[in-house]
């Protein structure tokens, strides 16, 4: 560290390790970071894009928003209030978010309390226990999403039935889409180091119909166990009032705030995003949710009945492209 550097190496490690633990589609971790004094830029790493499943870059921006939220939480623990600028530099469109750290004080109340949940949170694709989530907790998660500018809508049973049909259509399309299949083969299954979704994190195969996305659908994953899944999952749709790159980044921050809040109540989540990857099916989900808002993420939530493996992360050093 030079005498002029604002953060120590340990502090940079804390910030970027937190950021790396954000969720991202297929665990591509589509981010890199530049640090200039008290300013941290979150950049899109185009080498980690998913051209088949995420042609428009919506999912990767949701991941970048989630990473930025984790950065804010870690900064709050270190005592920094943060302010944000979305896509701050027209000359550098790869800079998705710029985070400004204010002068250090005591840990920032509220945000810093979520720090311990960052490494506990992971996507849980197994069956849920038959214990319903209390209505106050559902409300709390909606408030968490709302405070980042998004909306979380819990679906009733008739909406869930309609969604299940749309998901089925998406699953069938996925199975016959060679490009998506190859992309999944590149990122999913087996043992993984640093990125991708290892077989151990896929969870068991459902016996019978279940509201879960099997990321390995279409290719063999040996030794996979089977399990009976809950018959009525708690399903929510995270929406934004508008549809542009800023909305996607905000959706990512809202997603991560609600997921960390859920983790603090021992509630786990998995993604049912397959219909949102097809424009016509996304419109159908929009109709089911009954809102003008734009669906960005579909979540299945509950208390996990088992445990499943975690997806690996790269070392924070590998995500830092500039620091002075
Ligand atoms: C925008 C977005 C979309 C995702 N879509 C899916 C999905 O459809 N199915 C799924 O099983 N996981 C999905 N995931 C979860 C990622 O696979 C997961 O975050 C990644 O593997 C890292 O693992 P972790 O969440 O356990 O840390 C999605 C994550 C994000 C951020």
Q: Explain this structure to me?
A:
InterPro entries: Nitroreductase-like (IPR000415), Nitroreductase/BluB (IPR050627). This is Nitroreductase family protein. The protein is α+β, with helices and mostly antiparallel strands and 324 residues long. The chain has two domains: 9-121, NADH Oxidase, CATH 3.40.109.10; 135-302, 3-Layer(aba) Sandwich (NADH Oxidase). It is 32% helix and 17% strand. The protein has seven helices and eleven strands. The protein has helices at residues 9-20, 58-78, 135-146, 157-175, 178-187, 245-264, 279-289, and strands at 31-36, 39-44, 82-86, 95-101, 151-154, 205-206, 226-227, 234-240, 268-271, 294-302, 320-323. It has a five-stranded mixed beta sheet with strand order 3-4-2-1-11, with helices on one face. A four-stranded antiparallel beta sheet has the order 5-8-10-9, sandwiched between helices. Strands 6-7 form a two-stranded parallel ribbon. A hairpin with a 2-residue loop joins strand 1 (31-36) and strand 2. Helix 3 packs antiparallel against helix 6. The chain is globular and about 55 Å long.
